Amino acid sequence: MPDVEVAVRGVLPDVPGPSAFPRARVVRLESDDGTSVATGLVVGPRLVLTTRRVLGRTLPVARVRPPAGPVTPEWLAAQSLPARVRARTLPAGDDATGGDGAGTVRSLAVVWTHPQADAALLLCTDAEPLSDATDLRTEWAEPDEATECAAVGFAAGAARPLDDAEGRGAPVEIGIVVRPGARSRARAWSVELATAPPGGPPGGSWAGCTGGALVAEDVLVGLLSNDEAATRPQGPGLQVVPARRFADQADLVAWVTADAGPGAWARAAATPGQLRRRREQDARADVRWPVRVGPVPAAGDGHAVRAEVAAALGGPAGEALHVATTTLLCGPPGYGTTAAAAAHAHAAWTAGALDLLVWVEGGSRSDVLAGLAAADRVVHPTTVGGADAEAAQAFLAWLASTRRRWLVVLDAVPDPSLVHELWPRGATGQVVVTSERNDVLPRTGGRVVAVDRLSSSQAEAYVEARLPGTPPADVARLADDLGRLPLALAVAVADLRDTGGGAGEYAERLAERRQELALPDDAGADVAATVLAVTTLAVDDADARHPQGLAQLVLILVSVLGPTFPLAVLATAAVGEGVESLVRPRSWRRWITPGHGITPAELREALAHLCRVGLASLADDSVDGATLARVHPLVQEVVRAQLDAATLDTALRTAAEALAEAWPRDGGPGATAEPVFRTCASTVAALDVRGALWDPEGHPVLWEVGASLSRAGLPHEAVVHWERLVEDATRTLGAEHLDTLTARNNLALAHREDGRLDRAVPLLVGTLEDAERVLGAAHPATLTSRNNLAMAYRDAGLVERALEMLQRNLSASRRRLGADHPDTLTSRSNLALAYRDAGLLDEALPLLVRGLDDAERVLGPDHPATLAACRDLGLTHWLDRRADRALPLLERALADRERVLGPDHPDTLTSRNDLAPAYRDVRRPDRTLPLLEDTLATAERALGPDHPVTLTSRGNLALAYRDARRPDLALPLLERMLADAERTHGYQHADTLACRGVLALAYQDAGRLDRAIPLLESTHADRQRALGPDHPDALTSANYLALAYRDAERYGDAVRLLERTLADRQRVLGTDHPDTLATRGDLALVHHDAGRLDHAIALLEGTLEDRQRVLGPGHPDTLTSRSNLAVAYREAERTEEAVVLLERTFVDRQRMLGPDHADTVASRVVLVDAYREVGRWDDALAVLERALRDDERLLGPADPQTSGSRVTLVDAYREAGRDEAADALEAGEPVDVARRRGARPRRRSA
């Protein structure tokens, strides 16, 4: 069972720190006869959670179901519940004994017990509830690592008042550390009280603490219960009933929901250990709280105050948030939903109620992902790059566990599917959504606030406040003429304030404009017509300012962009030239376009005029230096409706050119605004119904959107984009046009990135066939298609087909471009690396050797491709276990990169990471650890702690520490790696699971199986759930778990799991797959350790035979099998057979790996022991003498390893009776001299 450590922290008035529930949620339970005391947790205004055992076996359980609605006094009166328990709340006060009173007493009845677990619910039957707290949300979880918990209990005995003179009625905090172990799924965890004071807590036994909630990071972990089997002088012992045993029982959830409301009882989004790491991240010094993320609409007095909406969101002054809630502001365009959300955001920010404000544009799923990802990169500023989807999930996980106060606004969400599984949630924050639909809410529910037109009084108050001194009749007329429409009122008022006109005069102009535009005079009933009228009046007034007539053109241009757009587009040459070609709507006021070239400054000034008259606004915050502006979508819509087809097409082409020109590149200034560019480009593409962007070919901005989605790690969204482009290209250009083939190729790549090889491969096959037929076999586009198909085949495990494609590509490239063309060199490199990835090193090495020679000759020694070719060749030699060849190449690659790129470049640091394992394999820890330590320090300084190269460096150093048997140094790094992966990728990502597995193996190596096995079990379960039970990673997890069971001497569990894994691998991978053979070998080792040598030898012999046939006699795995079989032969007293196998293994490892490789050294040790066992001293000494020569040559005579080899040889000399040789070696003589002196052994006396 898990280890549980307990300590008393003292009398507790209020549980402090990370593992605390509010004081008001702890109650003391007393039997009605006053003979017993226990503890309970308030989980609803009338509900208390405790254990069933503390109530006694005779206490009746009411046969009543929870009501459909809230638990009211009237409902209670109709039930006649038997109240047999009293609950006493803790009184207010700060002193240790509970303050100045004895707390409130209420009567309770038992309404639910779990059928198996020791848990119960008690319901307050009095007219007044136990608690009037508004937030009684309870989250539960199961610990997956050593977890510090706290519980609060009371001294057992008579029901003394809380202010008992001896303090025996006071609450006591118990600190408990739960360490999940091999039987973490047990029904209860035993609590060892050896660390507690004898006699129990002050004033009684531990029995008074039973029923208390065990809490970690504000999450319920379990309940304390009596351990009746324990006999202790101080009374019953304790055990913990895990929350997972009862927390998801339907009746319990129904009772808490009825009493405390929906969502009041839920499983936590993370484990306590993950929550602890989140809390530690909250305290990071590299974030300057409070922070804002996203294009929050500008603050100001341009929007009407709606008291009812403000109250629903948290108060008119933003002084409070309705935390742990989701509120939907629902209303048609122009009704002010976005304005109301913005007003709430600014009020909460100004009131200091927020640590984090996030504004997310909700127009598309990619927008939502980008907005959440941007927030993650702000709260974790050292995170570099990464996919938006992963960053978004990391941010959502952070929200669920942070203690920071936050507000997330999802603006203008058109469809609930766009935010599926992306809903923020957490106990310390609020979500506000705006939409035209009333069903855009998470499945857990939320509040819908309908946003309508303003009332007459609201509209008139709004006008009067912003146009003081306006006659009431004019105020009423203006409000009525605009239909009390918030958007129209905001534009009209801003226009009047800018021009200084009067409301009465404006009403007259409005009526005239409606007549000019043939709009209905319907008091604003037609929303679009009303917005059009005020828009044309406002743009006329903006155009009257210098530069005259330009505001119209700017408004036309930005009407085809997204509602939020980067001001950088107005500074492009494309806009400066394109706006001159725009034709103003016939019904609008005519202006003469300036004859001189329009400058960016004039365009910015025209936009400023639009802002003054209420048609545009600047976002409060810039995004990475790219200032953003906003135009209401309804204003954009009515403007576009006035344009003729030619003008709209001109605007679309101009906008596309401007976006392509201003698009942020390669992480430069404004790079984090790329999602805004992407949204604008997608809007332009969606408005292009006549193919303006496809004449004469696809506009580059269309391809940029797809590439941007791939860069952001949004493959599903990229698939949707490329599907649309394929359709548009086929319709406008034809199926055989180069752009159509390219779009099909990119669609296939998006399918591949999305993990849909079943769709990618057929599409790539068809695209390649068409490209070969239309363009020719050696056209660059055909070569690209063939290469992409090869990569898809490789991903699908069709290695032979992949290699065939790459071979054809290399031949075609050589034929068309020549042997020395850079593309030909790339094709050769791709083929070589594919051979290497397939394990065909003999085929890969000649290609890589030639590739390096050609790159040096054609591109020069300092070209990046040449440096990469040198590295690739070195790594391939290392994979071939030829460290003697790998080391010079890897050292050269590092030196060249340091010289060409600098010591801090990511590629240089990668080369240092490459070199360290090669040093390790040749037993050079003096170089391995210093190199990796320096690499990590440099990466953290130059790239930041969360850069991918830094993460790799940290992992490599941790593994090197593990290999050096330094778990004290390895484990903290691996634990940090897991925390980084959880934050960056989420808890179920493949990289996170891999990190968890590596940490578990490190715990296993360190002998800490109590930590290793639970991690391996959870990793295996998560991989089965996420990937499927037949996925190779899931099978690998099962294999590792079985080996951990072996180390824990749980041989039965290990054998059963390995036999099942072996059967699964045979079925999924085949009998001869290397992984299948590895599992069979591991099963043999478990039988060996369990003492079943006959089973072990049979399996080992079969595994060796199959590995020799499948992998070859010199493969490292074959050599391992031979060595393992030899060990088993020795233990079965088949020593001569063992020696033959060991000799062959040692010779093969010397030849294949070199004399200094770690595996060769291990073979040497085992062989020497076998020689000793059979008395072959001459052979044993010859091996040891050679080992000492090799160490002296490689490491030097003063190296500790050399000294160890010398001591081993001295001991062997003496054991063989060659004392003279031993004396000479101890005296410092060379090994050859010592050997000659001991050539004839001295006869020992009997």
From TrEMBL:
Region (Disordered): 1220-1246
Positions with biased composition (Basic residues): 1236-1246
Coiled-coil ranges per UniProt: none
Domain of life: Bacteria
UniProt protein name: Tetratricopeptide TPR_1 repeat-containing protein
Source organism (scientific name): Cellulomonas fimi (strain ATCC 484 / DSM 20113 / JCM 1341 / CCUG 24087 / LMG 16345 / NBRC 15513 / NCIMB 8980 / NCTC 7547 / NRS-133)
Lineage, opening ranks: Bacteria, Bacillati, Actinomycetota, Actinomycetes, Micrococcales
